[in-house]
Specification:
alpha+beta; Diaminopimelate Epimerase, Chain A, domain 1; 2 domains
Length: 256
């Protein structure tokens, strides 16, 4: 069976966030998808199931997740590249509801639900970072700090992060250079992903906060991991439009 590896939220090889993409005509069982994801050993593997409607599921090396941005971007990129679909928008059915991906001049735009955080007043988590704000949307814990230097230099304690209730931890700050509206990093040791290179879905939590704080609905963000990646974001009612690019790294075959 053929599969593809794609770098998402970048136009350059060996940057952005790599994802594996598998396309099935019939839905495989969950155990098989989990085994394939462990074998791929990337932060996410996307499984697209073709049928009357397109379905997508995402697996980390540790477990299935409800929503993933970069692997959705990678899957749409391959569907168009390999001509599995026409030029029209792609509509995926997912555990987070219908998700649309559109081709645009600057790459691809994901239409995701916003998942804003609720402030956790008095939380003792990560107080050593002198947080301006700590919030949670049930999926991720978000900590806002004053300086991007804190974000860039932060050394994570993965045991501490794995002990929080949420699946992951997001650390964010305004960009001192003013090139970006905000920068961030994302850590998901519970999912087998200590630090994720570029987490698109994290912005469903981050972007509503920064939109309100900066009083703007269009944002430009960068995840400042070692590989790094850029995201153009637009808030429209209760949805978040996430625009980025993708490039195919290689194709392979797996004997199933």
């Amino acid at each position: 069976m053929k599969f593809w590896q794609v770098d998402a939220f970048t136009k350059e090889l060996f940057s952005g966030n790599p994802a594996a993409v598998f396309i099935f005509d019939h839905e495989p069982n969950k155990k098989l998808m989990a085994k394939i994801a462990r074998e791929m050993n990337l932060s996410e593997t996307a499984f697209v199931i073709r049928g009357e409607k397109l379905k997508i599921r995402w697996f980390t090396p540790g477990e299935e997740v409800k929503l993933c941005g970069h692997a959705t971007l990678a899957a749409a990129h391959i569907l168009w590249q390999e001509k599995f679909v026409g030029e029209e928008d792609i509509l995926f059915q997912s555990r987070s509801g219908p998700l649309t991906v559109s081709k645009v001049q600057d790459g691809y735009t994901l239409n995701f639900p916003q998942q804003p955080a609720v402030e956790e007043v008095g939380s003792s988590l990560f107080q050593e970072l002198n947080p301006l704000y700590i919030g949670s949307n049930g999926e991720d814990c978000m900590v806002v700090v004053a300086s991007d230097t804190v974000v860039r230099s932060y050394t994570p304690d993965f045991n501490e992060i794995a002990a929080i209730d949420e699946r992951g931890f997001l650390l964010t700050a305004p960009d001192n250079s003013k090139k970006y509206d905000y920068i961030y990093r994302g850590f998901f040791p519970k999912l087998g992903v200590p630090e994720d290179p570029v987490t698109g879905s994290a912005n469903t939590c981050l972007a509503p906060y920064w939109s309100k704080r900066l009083n703007k609905n269009r944002l430009f963000a960068r995840q400042v991991s070692e590989r790094g990646g850029e995201l153009h974001l637009e808030l429209v009612k209760d949805r978040l439009l996430i625009t980025g690019q993708a490039i195919t790294v290689f194709t392979g075959d797996i004997d199933l």
